[in-house]
Amino acid sequence: MAVATQTKPASPAPITVTLSPAARTPVADMTAPTLEPIVATPTPALPFDQELAMRVRQEVERSIQRSIKGLEYFNSPDPAVGLTPKDVIHSRGTLKLYHYRAQADEVYRVPILLVMSLVSKPYILDLVPGQSLVEFLLQRGFDVFMIDWGTPRPEDSRLTLEDYVLDFIPQCIAKVQEASGEPDVSLVGYCMGGLLSTLYAATHPDGPLKNLACFATPVNYEGMGLQRQWADPRYFDVDRIVDTLGNVPPEMMSQSFDMLRPVSKAISQVRLWDNMWNDEQTRAFRLFDRWGADQIPFAGETFRQTTKDLMWANKLVKGEMTVGGRAAKLESITVPVLHVLAEHDHIVPAAAAKDFVEMVGSADKKEIVMKGGHVSLVAGGNAMFRLWPQLDRWLAERSV
User: Fold this and answer.
1) What is this structure's pTM?
2) Domains with residue ranges and CATH for the chain
3) CA dist., res. 59 & res. 49, Å (int)
4) Which residues are marked as active site?
């Protein structure tokens, strides 16, 4: 066999050899054949101009729907809320005690009394069918009651923590016992409703309380962040506010909450318009927006007390809190305790709530930290799949 020799070029440039089909055929030539590259066949796609046209048409349609539905949004009445069937079994002043009608064939022995904040309407826990914590609990077999504090009148400005903790709540618990025929009651409190429930539990260690569940409940006011700074006693004259106004107007409270996130309202309005074409998102926005704007005055003397004893002196976490002469120590609470707080809560930051479970004297106690904010913790899609099932499981084991 003849061996061909090649002279190595002086430069490192690559050598290109072109072989004819005839030269590639004989095996004896020992010459490697040239392989054709394998090219994957691409998935057919719309030409760029067609894809762009589809996007334009979609955005035009959404713009039209925004305009149409925007007119409907501003011209239609507020959505109906708080529709779960109920009966008023007790009233006193503005206070109403609701007993919700059963929706299950079998009911747990221990009834639940829901306690709301003093400055918020209670329907956040009973928005609409399918998005109601009250309805969910009824369907899961619980006997559900709720305290609706109502809107304080000018003469109610003299109400104090003693009135709520040592009078109103105990009286409502007695009415729940009477209606249910059971000696035990579970309290479930949200935000300041959780605080009132906690103060009741701490001042009634031998009372009929069976379980205590709280959501976003502040106990350490050092963790209240900007709210604590704005209420600095050097600049915040709470006595002048209460002595001049009586009840604290809801606008003052809502504006202070808005200042915690100054651009959030503007962003929410932009998002509303951007999603106006989407009926489901618009409906959800409207429900929460109505509740957020539907706040009520804060009873003046109670506001003065909470500002001085909690926001300024931080007495509860220090073990120095008293209500009507009764010590309100967290360590006195020995019933089963569940506390759920929101990771991104701007009204009751986790730093203000996280000491609760650690400080109570209960052997059976549990803390759960969940994604979400102050409102989405208890209502809406997140709550339906996160908080509600957790509350159901926890109460079910302790309500027989």
Assistant:
1) 0.75
2) 86-397 (3.40.50.1820)
3) 15
4) 191, 345, 374
